[in-house]
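FORM 7B: Structural annotation worksheet

SECTION A. Query
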Amino acid sequence: MAANATKHTLLPQELIRLKRDNQPLPAEEIKAFVQGIADDRISDAQIGAFTMAVFLNGMSREEVVALTTATRDSGHVMQWSDLNLPGPIVDKHSTGGVGDLVSLVLGPWVAACGAFVPMISGRGLGHTGGTLDKLESIPGYDPYPAPERFRDVVKSTGVAIIGQTGDLAPADKRIYGVRDVTATVESIPLITASILGKKLASGLDALVMDVKVGSGAFMPTPEKSRELAKSIANVATQAGTPTTALLTDMSQPLAPCAGNAVEIVETLALLRGDRPNSRIMQVTRELAAEMLIAGKLAGSREEALTKLEKALTSGAAAEVFARMVRELGGPSDFMERSEHYLAKADVIKPVHAEQAGIVQRIDTRAVGMSVVELGGGRLRNDANVDHSVGFTDIVEIGDSVDSQRPIAMVYARSEAAAERAAEQLRAAFTIGEAAASADTLLQDTFRGEAL
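SECTION B. Predicted structure
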């Protein structure tokens, strides 16, 4: 049957049967099946049967590459060659986390070093914050510009952070919707194809991936995070986009804040160079260096770090961010008067631990869910987000807390909401007497292997 499949397009049920029986799938048949999904010729029932078969039997590397490229090619694939840009098209993607505002700093920072960053980002998902939700804290910012406007901003500014449009990887939207209701989300091949199908449709020269590990990570175990990082790096590279994946710690919030407007405030501080040695800046710097190397804007890590330091201390990175905000409809004086534009919470108060001691562990997922319950995320897809709520001044593992030093400041719409969030936050922190330290921030690096 598999031999004949290369000559004639299989019926959908035959492709499903092959995967059900753990038989190899020809690349051209995967492509035809995915295009049928994009064209609505494949039913949700057939998508569900296929994803369950993949979930149970897995996929070979060649099959995942075929699924990824088919997803990428199921809609519009961006082309940049006609713009004659004087630098590489590069991007970064993260599996998400809490206090993970890396993209907001990284995009402008790398653009200030000569790269072009067409960053397609998403909204919050589960306990993880969404880059678009954060940017929508800025009045007037348009995350869905017309395609030509998007291209113009990338060309003139070097970076534009926007949301996914319907014509990019449309097959993935259907596949993901079915996976979400058929218990097939946790599949490395399907996750890889979903992430990369969308990212590679941006027409990139290179990609850097940030895969999280720890209590706030998307993947349930360190082993699964490592497996995903390797899969993404290898599959993307074999699909034609050289990719490096970094495995980074998410055993505690990456920045000392979690929410939307509060993370924009932190972003501006980082771009001004106020917190050069913070955990969030360390991760951002490593990802940025990898992007410069991948884009051939630096020949070594040392050269990349030197360029990045100059772009930060000169104010160039901050200026690129300000220009991106202005070009996409935000205030022209946002960097100077951000406090005038950002929403403010009605209640701001400290959250103290029930006992004095040293922070031993943080349930990072619980911190993220507390932000969601405050209104800073979504319990349903159609829910509105309250940009003003969240936490700031979140302590780290190994910090001492007592009646003078709280574990965080809560920003809420009401006293009752603030108290509920405070209770949830206290429960997320384990306080003890022993000295404690966090896991290594940068845990591993995987460079994609070409065919």
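SECTION C. Observations
The CA atoms of residues 271 and 318 lie 5 Å apart. Residues 1-6 have pLDDT under 50 and may be disordered.

SECTION D. Sign-off
Analyst initials: ____
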